[in-house]
Amino acid sequence: MARDVYCVFLKKTAPGLDFQLYPGELGKKIFDNISKEAFSQWQSKQTMLINEKKLNMMNLEHRKLLEEQMQKFLFEGEAVDIEGYVPQAKS
Length: 91
Description:
The protein is mainly alpha-helical. The protein contains 3 helices and 2 strands. Helices cover 48% and strands 9% of the residues. Pfam families: Iron_traffic. Keywords: Iron.
């Protein structure tokens, strides 16, 4: 069953995630306050970050870095800084 949440990232009510995708308190906060659309945007950034910085998800420090970036992106409105990434010009 679809459920709507007030997405603090998009600043509007939108379809929420179907289940908690991330463990712990942060996962609950994401589940309660972040829409599918916003989380999808984060996942794109996360993939770029992992690739650019050659992160290893078995490495605790790398996971911690990713979690900090996720929190900044979703809840603090900070853009994810990806070295060497230049967004495509909008035509």
